[in-house]
Amino acid sequence: MPICNSCKGKTFIRDDITNNLACSTCGRLQEYDNLVDQYGGINGPTGTFVSVGTTGSGNVYSYKETKIYEARKLIDDVSLRLGFSPSESDDVKRMVATITEGEYGQGNWFNVFVGACSYVGMRRDNKSLPISEVASVIGSDAYELGRMIMRVVNFLDLKKPNFPEFDIVNLFERTLRNSHSFADVEGDKVQRMKKQGIFLIHCAMKWFLTTGRRPLPIVAAVLVLVAELNGISIRIEELAKEIHAVVHTSRLRYRELLQALVKVAQALPWGKDITVKNVVKNAPFVIQYMERKAMSKPSKKKDSEGGVGLDLGDVVRDCLRKDIGDGTDMMSFEDDSETEMEKLKLAHQSWYFEAEDGGCALSVDNVDKLKLSHECLSMMYSKFLDEVGNVKSSGGLKEVRERKKRRGFELHACTEWWNGKSALSRRLLLKEILEKDVGLDVVPPSFVNGCVTVKKRRDKINAAKLRIDKIMHPLNAHSGDSIDTCTSEDVHTTKKRKRALGIDWEDLIIETLLLHRVKEEEIEKGWYNVLLELHVFNSGIV
């Protein structure tokens, strides 16, 4: 029989509100009076004060509700750090709920899963988001995140056009807009850099510099080049780290971009003087040439320079008529001044592009009576370059640089080189990009490297055949041959001797495969491990 905990009374009445017993003497409610123990397994009835699945004292949420709350909180945090809008964050939540069937999750795998859904959601909306940036936010490895992305894509069965290809132009615009390095740049200059960057990105796509490669390094390279063209000082190492790109790869893409510009510059009259070291200073002229090349129709004139419909005679005649514009008199080839020769070269470069617009003012009378042929004009320009070379060798170039520096003469002040009217400055499809002519048509670098590698293997195969034939048929060997005779017996020789003979492990493997009668076409492919397993070790044969 229950006893009151307060007055030790033994008479009780049932309270109508709480359904608990109350002492009839003192009126105190008796705790745990209506507690019902569970029975019948996990599906049995639940007591009033004890409930299965509660998280402890002071919390009314169940385990599932707490898990869902923490999962949504994680999604909001990742979306905020990635700069998502509320609608984009809701799309990620819906994707997570759909894949997990409303169960969500917790732990390290769920962080990677949320990052994968964030990437897929942006990619599905044709908004570029680098995997490396997502991996840095969630604190995961890029390869682990990539595997999770593939699982999400396969589960949702995303295919074209619902899952478009990665848009490197979108990535460039996003990087330029969000980068701290360009936060203080004026809006007009940012728009100018945006168009120039899109133009160079399209050119890089046409030159196959982006084919089969990660997009961030080429974006970093283009951003650095565009910044230099607009007078913004930025290091490629700092920018690469900011956008989570590999520094070494970014430097390599930057050098490849400069090398491509050097190849384009060879079509200009002074193109042979342009190298990787000075191509940035000549980049305004090169890019202007590329822009007009893309805008112009194919010209049938054989004597037009660079294929852009410019007459070399008009160009040089205008160079003879026009001065730089800083108050100097007419330039002449008879003047021995180094400064005048430097100006003539700059004027030639500037008016090479301005002659097409017909905006050159005449300052010499009866110049048209010269009637110089194109061959004569080319000879005059070659002679001028020789004179510049003599000035450099005689030490007069230093005086030219000092006087130019004192006058404040700048190369970029000669002309407004950027037009921005080319179609390559806007978004284009890959097919339209490949149809444009920017002065350079190349094959993919991977194809070139593959051809070079196959040629090297072919040379190694021929050398190995000669060495084997020289040992198997010594009477046929010539005494004056310089072919290395080192075979597989030289494996135990010293590294110094093998290096002197030019024999490495690849030569020994090729010799072994040839001795086992493996076809040369298979050896050229370079799958040495597979060929050794099949033909030498007889792996898998019972």
Automatic annotation (TrEMBL):
- List UniProt keywords, sorted A-Z: Metal-binding, Zinc, Zinc-finger
Q: Boundaries of each BRF2-like C-terminal domain copy?
A: 177-282
Q: Which GO terms describe its molecular function?
A: zinc ion binding
Q: Which CDD domains match?
A: CYCLIN_SF
Does the keyword section mention Transcription? no
Q: Which InterPro entries match?
A: BRF2-like_C, Cyclin-like_sf, PTF2
Q: Which domain of life is it from?
A: Eukaryota
Q: Which PANTHER family match?
A: PLANT-SPECIFIC TFIIB-RELATED PROTEIN PTF2
Q: What is this protein called?
A: BRF2-like C-terminal domain-containing protein
